[in-house]
């Protein structure tokens, strides 16, 4: 019986016990914990919730969960999966990585890996393995094109549980750039009433914490939006009205987010102009698992594109 112990933070671990019958009595392994990170400066922390697996060749491995806090101490990628070999003692106890704790680098198991695409209801093609939504797919909200995707707003914002039109990838590294091109196809689809809307790029954890870099209309005016939402409130909401003369939202707008640890640099480009730095956000800890004490936060940060309101927008990714 493999058990996760020591909480889910620092000190998380895997222990094992055995019995000749299901209902016990169980004998505790004398080498427990068989997996634990003892090095507080190690790359992998909070290691536990493991499951043993064996390969067709007869090798054994422990697949387990962990976090990568990095230099900042915040695990931006959330819980990730790691793998280390299991060896068996002469008296039949399993030891993970010779009790040395998680390894930063490990040889892959010698089993074939296929490149078959995962199935999906919308024939997502090249997007199947990388992109996700937060609450499944609803007909009319997502439409895939040759180069990207069309998102139809459902009149809600990302802080609402009923919100749908956001399209996301997981953040895999601590430093990277992401960009998109977008064009508004309709501002108030299916409503006939002029309402506020915005659309663009997002860095997203859940409905409790995210940021926006977008373009939209507010109170009849057009502008570039920079917003940070943390724990039930917009802590930053800057709408740059008339950032250029007569922004035409029906023409192409480009956005770029540069990630450097906890820093986010937000850029936009309109109709072929040079990149303009709209904002530098110095400390986005709210996008980390440890950055907000609200609910279960293990999933990690994401980035992608979104629509707020009733606009219909095409994104090239």
How is this fold's topology laid out?
Elements: E1 2-5, E2 13-18, E3 27-28, E4 35-36, E5 45-54, E6 60-67, E7 80-88, E8 94-96, E9 142-144, E10 148-152, E11 166-170, E12 175-186, E13 197-206, E14 209-218, E15 221-230, E16 234-241, E17 253-260, E18 263-270, E19 276-281, E20 302-308, E21 312-316
Antiparallel strand pairs: 1-2, 2-3, 2-4, 5-6, 6-7, 7-8, 9-10, 10-21, 11-20, 12-17, 12-21, 13-14, 13-20, 14-15, 15-16, 17-18, 18-19
Give me the CATH fold name of the largest domain. Jelly Rolls
Radius of gyration: 24 Å
CATH architecture classification name of the largest domain: Sandwich
User: Strand fraction band?
Assistant: 35-45%
Shape: elongated
What count of helical segments does DSSP give?
A: 0
Describe the overall structure.
The two termini are about 45 Å apart. The model is unreliable at about 115-125 (pLDDT under 50). This protein folds into two domains: about 1-100, no CATH class; about 125-315, Jelly Rolls, CATH 2.60.120.200. It is built from no helices and 21 strands. The relative contact order is 0.15. The chain is elongated, with a radius of gyration of 24 Å. The strands form four sheets. The protein has a seven-stranded antiparallel sheet, with no helix packed on it. It has a six-stranded antiparallel sheet with strand order 11-20-13-14-15-16, with no helix packed on it. Strands 1, 2, 3 and 4 form a four-stranded antiparallel sheet that branches. The chain is mostly beta strands and about 325 residues long.
